[in-house]
Amino acid sequence: MTTIDANEAVGDVAYRINEVISIYPITPASPMGEWSDAWMAMDKPNIWNTVPDVVEMQSEAGAAGAVHGALQTGSLTTTFTASQGLLLMIPNLFKIAGELTPTVIHVAARTVATHALSIFGDHSDVMAARTTGFGMLASSSVQEAHDFTLISHAASLESSIPFIHFFDGFRTSHEIQKIERLDDDVLHAMITDDLVRRHRHRALSPDRPVIRGTAQNPDVFFQARETVNPYYDACADKTEAAMDRFAELTGRRYHPFDYHGAPDADRVIVLMGSGADATHETVDYMNGHGEKVGVIKVRLYRPFDVKRFIDSIPPSVKSIAVLDRTKEPGSAGEPLYVDCVTALHETGKQLRTVGGRYGLSSKEFTPAMVKGIFDNLALESPKNHFTVGIHDDVTHTSIDYDPSFSTEPDTVIRALFYGLGSDGTVGANKNTIKIIGGETENNAQGYFVYDSKKAGAVTVSHLRFGPDPIRSSYLVNRASFVACHQQVFLETYDMLANLDDGGTFLLNTSWSAEEVWNHLPGRVQRALIEKKAKFYIIDGYKVAHESGMGRRINTVMQVCFFAISGVLPRDEAIEKIKGAIQKTYGAKGDEIVKMNFRAVDNTLAHLHEVEIPAEATGNGNLLGVLPDSAPEFVKNVTAPIIAGKGDDLPVSAMPCDGTFPSGTTKWEKRNIALEIPVWDPEVCIQCAKCAIVCPHGVIRIKSCDPSFLEGAPATFKSIDIKDKGFAGQKYLLQVAPEDCTGCGVCVDICPAKNKKETRLKAINMAPQPPIREAEKENWEFFLTLPEVDRLALKSNTIRQQQMQQPLFEFSGACAGCGETPYLKLMSQLFGDRALIANATGCSSIYGGNLPTTPWTVNHEGRGPAWSNSLFEDNAEFGLGFRLSVDKQTEMARELVAEMAVRIGENLAKEILEAEQKDEADIHEQRQRVAALKEKLKEIDSPDAARLLDLADMLCRKSVWIVGGDGWAYDIGFGGLDHVLASGRNVNILVLDTEVYSNTGGQTSKSTPLAAVAKFSAGGKRTAKKDLGAIAMTYGNVYVASVAMGARDEHTLKAFIEAERYDGPSIIIAYSQCIAHGIDMARGMQNQKAAVQSGQWLLYRYNPERAAAGENPLQLDSRAPKLPLSEYLRMENRFKMLQKSRPADAERLWKEIQAGVNERWKKYEYLSRKEG
Amino acid sequence: MDLSTTYLGLKLRTPIVPSASPLSETLDGAKRLEDAGASAIVLSSVFEEQLAHEQLEMEHHLTHGTESYAEATSYFPDTQLGDLGPETCLDHIRKVKSAVDVPVIASLNGTTPGGWTSFATWMEQAGADAVELNLYNIPTDPDQPAEEIEKGYEEILCAVKGAVNIPVALKLGPFFTNMGHVAKRFDKAGADGLVLFNRFYQPDIDLEELEVVSNVLLSTPQAMRLPLRWIAILSGRVEADLAATSGIGHSCDVIKMLLAGAKVTQVCSVLLKAGIDHLRQLELGLVEWLEENEYESVEQMRGSMSQRNVADPAAFERAQYMKALRTFSVMV
Predict the structure, then answer these.
(1) For residues B274 and B17, what is the distance between their CA atoms, to the nearest angstrom?
(2) Is A595 in Cβ contact with B56 (below 8 Å)?
(3) B66 near A CB under 8 A
(4) In a mutagenesis test of the A interface, which of B59, B75, B92, B212 is the best target, namely the one with the most A β-carbons within 10 Å?
């Protein structure tokens, strides 16, 4: 037995029975590829004793192409994907199936983006692929996913029909369960040599040449297409035969349709995926309470075997509900429903049949909902085309259910843990599950819920343990153990609502056993009393600190759980924890093991039970999340989502087209920083570096006349401004205390030192809680002060430019993010006229993931208009913005010219001749357009009305195409190249983190040689692609390579030049990332070292210089003076290779140094050439 | 000419030994040292604290930011990291030992009582012929009395002596109130050798950045005066072998140290500056001097100018002090 999640369970089998694996990262399927790559790096062989070749491609389309090619030439080949990735594979899927080529694509089924992207699970992706001719096999649990991986490959080889094997993204792919692992003998028995030989013999070979993939004409295509019918007709038989053979080998029996329930059931639910397990559990419960119900689990969805489906329905059944985890707007019904209805119709079986939708985007699907569906079926006229799990108050599709209905058996121990991402809670719980799963007879299940922020993220761990198989494919909502790992959650989460009567509540708190009760909110006190709970406390941070664990309380809280939950006898549990620590950390060094052992030993002495008084004494309810001044939408929609009550919002609350208001992060006061920066005006040299590097837009600078400061709060700081252009004014620098993440980048970059104590700078970190209220007041006062007049600012000097208002603020990016300072800078310079096309990735998540968005507006209501289309099409999407804007501008200009007399010839002339080359010009044009609009309102003509609609386009718009290196270097490169070649005026900003950051650090073609990243577990063996050099070959593209931490003025200059250039421009911006394994507070130092070592070059290639007879390339960084090895040693991504493959590291480090020297020489040569 | 000497019970061809330095960090470096005439090799120091720090740092970076966000529950591949403990250093000892014929002395800087003994034991098992305990720390706690520090060192020495069967040398700094007293104390506690003196990296101030920096300064010729004095004073007064280190750059320096009573002279900075082959020059110079002065062997001259054996023993003590004092008085 082993305790793993489905991604690992699937990867484990797929890796062992394939020879070529082509991969590409996409949530939630990425871990299957990551495991495969890691196993390859460890030289782990497959069952034929060879190490599979695992190759990352540039996109899923590329992965599918490579799969197709490898299959055609006879290798056993697979890939893993989800959602948009599967959609990108579809053209190849048709080909692979059309050529009767056996393979399996394993899909962690995920929502396809529509009105919004969602990383979570439903069947909209696999349903989009149902016409490809692939067989489709659905598994509903971790064990099934493991088993079906093998069965699907065997069935595919047997039937010649390629398969999509799918399981629910996150709910199954990321759920940890105890399963029985298939050994190699079983794999051999299922994937026989004969099957492999047959596959090989179909391969293309110049030794027995054929052609495949011809073009056919109307005369024969149709007939040829019908030739495959016998294979599809036989597929279900062959799949069932594979299932039978599997059952003989393992004892686990499956069928294309598995019925479970009362033999004489009157109502049946038909569905597939993880929801089948929740239904199974509910069916057992209901039948145990006198009802007669059943569930048909659809395993083999394609080819849909009508006879087997009909045969699986007990004769007693009167009505069935077919559930689809997808939505097909405008259809007669969702796909599985339509298939079932067709089957019933064709076989003449008369059953009352309804269809329903459930669980889109991992919406919970619970026994209560299942019961609601059975209740609906029992009605005289059950609702058809219903939804369940939401409240549809618009078209009234939803059915009612009793949320309190529960099937959870008492034999199962259920536990909930509320923690922070940074405190190690999830890791500890994963360890706990493995201990219980591995060391006891109990079954174990773990599922983890994360919020949508990358910094200060809240995690909730849902754990179950019990003697019987656990089929509860839904969150724990009744727990015998609830742990709160962060004291502050008492104010914001109603954790005890889910605690069973007599259950145990564990609180990590700095309060002692004597004082804790009086600090608890009354709501918590009352719940503890009413539920007759047991209450334990521990000062986990103190124990962790004293044990050398810093702020990771994982081991401490894990020990507490075992000590008081009673899952295992205490001593045995401690012994097993230590065993697990040795196993988990042994390879990471003695010191880590010792540190964790210390934590284990120190914990019990600090764990105290608190006697619960008879009466509650505390006050207070959950903290209100938003102030009253918030807009109505924010109060009514955003606030519940922030509060974790998004599930309660009805359909009517949601925008119907995915459009949301800007500027909402400011309402979400997260207070996640333990320390925030505090300004020392006396030391400050007013360079504004702290503001420009602030990743979260919390450091703001203004200047104002001293008179504005009358009535300022007592602790509000100001000082005479040093800039002579603003003589007589006050310089103000204010931190947003509740929005800061405490990353410390500002302090690191500050060049000013206190003359009395050099440890202090002009900005220093200080604990947030004691100054929160005062600084909050200061911040609010600061916001009331007028913004500095943009026209008075020299935007080419940082100290003045940083007084421009950021229109990107308080994002949920990682603390110390290297990307966001560039976006903020862009928003300050051009945000009030910017249109942003944002490729999917980190920037689209911290930029556009609900509940709030950091893109905001200025006092005139102007600000960036932002949208995300896809990952792969962003350059084209942004070019579309440009084409559209240009066209509308052209039309507006035509109308202005045509209506010049009526508008006023002078005004028309000024509008048409305005160059709009700088802020002042644009400001004047806006005034002219405002005047134009006033005039147009007085003119009653169709042209006037048209021009009024288009008038704003007469002011210059700035189109920005933003994305990461995964987009620019890999999946979107073709489009990016085309857009560069278009000659159109777009600005491309590549936030280059040198990995796919958002999906967890997979290799891109930007990843440097020798770096360890996912998909390059053995160190990247090829050099980073020189995207800038490629762009320069066009000659008419403005290209800049920047690193703010190395030279901020250079970055500023590049942004201004790029935007001003009337043609395509691309800025490649070095962005440090958590996936580099660095101290994020010092990320700007890494940028500096990268430039000083020559690893990253600063340059600008400006075609306008060429036009003026100058060399267009200006190399702006100096010759490398820092040995590259010193930079490499600053980053774990490089150092890791020294530990995992020292000999390779030695060789590659020399190679990368040589590459740096060579590249420097090349750029220096090019920049020295005469223009 | 018989240049041989014994040090830590090891018979050495010459008294010239490269001290712990980056030069012996690689197998190639160790071989080149032997080829250039090193009579033994002290391997670069293994710092227990550094190894622990590297483990903690690696663990921090592998876990930082993980399990916080659904799309990225980790940021690095689950790859097999090789040795994050002492194994790489121990393997180096094994490799050097099997590649060279001269004795190999392992150098250790521990931080915990268990660390000192377990690392020393592993080093012995890896084939080290002796172990040099590199007591490289600066006591900065003003509340900690000298006795406690000296006792701590003695306990480390005794623990390691009790744990291994190979000879154990102590590499000491000069900052004791009574160097002679502590030398005798460690001698009595069983030290097989005393290496005088450890040279600590000294901090500096960067006037540009107003930051404390700690860049490496190689030793200067003047640095040899301190070990010269104490070797002369201790020679014949302790049973432990005396090794001289710091500022030895020329064969004259080697000769002076031997005259003062050193069993071996350890060299480092000069090799970093002039290259490994400088070892040959040192040996050549030693031979020339011995021949010129009609000595038969190193052993014959060793200690002949120790404090006990010079005409004016006070020259190693007060005479110079008085001279300095006089100079000082004049200045005042």
Answers:
(1) 16
(2) yes
(3) yes
(4) B75
Distance in Å, alpha carbon of B285 to nearest chain A alpha carbon: 37
> Residue A992's closest CA among A868, A867, A839?
A839
Same domain, A362 and A507: no
> Residues A345, A482: one domain?
no
Which stretches within chain B are classed as H helix? 27-35, 48-63, 87-99, 113-126, 146-163, 179-189, 225-234, 251-260, 269-274, 278-292, 298-301, 318-331
CB atoms within 10 A of CB A696: 31
Query: What domain range is A1138 assigned to?
Result: 994-1168
Q: Looking at the complex, does the CB of residue B112 fall below 8 Å from at least one CB of chain A?
A: no
What 3-state DSSP class applies to A750?
coil
| Contact A599/B at CB under 8 A | no
**A296 located within any domain:** yes
- The sign one gets for the Cα dihedral A86, A90, A94, A95 is negative
Contact between A588 and B84 using a beta-carbon 8 Å cutoff: yes
> Which residues of A participate in catalysis according to the annotation?
27, 60, 110, 998
Which of B55, B61, B79 lies at the smallest CB-CB distance from A41?
A: B79
Domains and CATH numbers, chain B: 5-307 (3.20.20.70)
Tens digit of each residue's pLDDT (9 = 90 or more) over A1077-1126: 999 999 999 999 999 999 999 999 999 999 999 999 999 999 999 999 99
Q: Does the pLDDT value for residue A642 go beyond 80?
A: yes
A655 domain residue, yes or no:
no
Q: Tell me how many domains chain A contains.
A: 6
- CATH number of the domain bearing residue A469: 3.40.920.10
Query: Across the interface, do B75 and A1000 touch by the CB < 8 Å criterion?
Result: yes
| A925-955 pLDDT tens trace | 999 999 999 999 999 999 999 999 999 999 9
Q: Are residues A245 and A263 in the same domain?
A: no
Say yes or no: A124 and A27 in one domain.
yes
What mean pLDDT, rounded, does chain A reach? 96
pLDDT reading at A620 higher than 70: no
Together in a domain, A63 and A155: yes
Residue A453 at interface with chain B, using a CB cutoff of 8 Å:
yes
d(Cα B95, Cα A804) in Å, to the nearest integer? 62
Q: Å from B72 to nearest chain A CA?
A: 4
* Interface contact A38, partner B, CB < 8 A: yes
CA distance A970 to chain B (A): 19
A432 and A475 part of one domain: yes
Shared-domain flag, residues A894 and A1037: no
Chain A hits for B70, Cβ within 8 Å = 27-28, 119-120, 170, 174, 450
Contacting residues of A for B113, CB less than 8 Å apart: none
For residue A826, tell me if it sits in a domain.
no
Q: Which of the listed residues A610, A640, A675 is the one where a domain comes to its end? A: A610
In a domain, A212, yes or no: no
Asked if B69 is an interface residue toward chain A (Cβ–Cβ < 8 A), one would say yes
Concatenated DSSP letters of A378-426: HSSSPPSSEEESS---SS--BPP--TT-----TTSEEEEEEEEGGGTHH
- Band of residue B328 on the pLDDT scale cut at 50, 70, 90: very low
Of B56, B61, B83, the CB nearest to A1132: B61
A184 with A295, same domain: the answer is no
Residue from the list B71, B74, B81 with its beta carbon closest to the beta carbon of A1140 = B81
Please tell me which of the candidates A459, A588, A1018 has its beta carbon nearest to residue B58. Answer: A588
The residues, ordered by sequence, that sit 6+ positions from A746 with a Cβ below 8 Å of its Cβ are: A677, A690, A691, A693, A694, A699, A763
CATH of the domain at A365: 3.40.50.920
Cβ burial of A657 (10 Å; 0-12, 13-18, 19+) is exposed
User: pLDDT per residue over A949-1005, tens digit each?
Assistant: 999 999 999 999 999 999 999 999 999 999 999 999 999 999 999 999 999 999 999
Interface membership of B332 toward A (CB under 8 Å): no
State whether residue A170 sits within 8 Å of chain B by CB.
Answer: yes
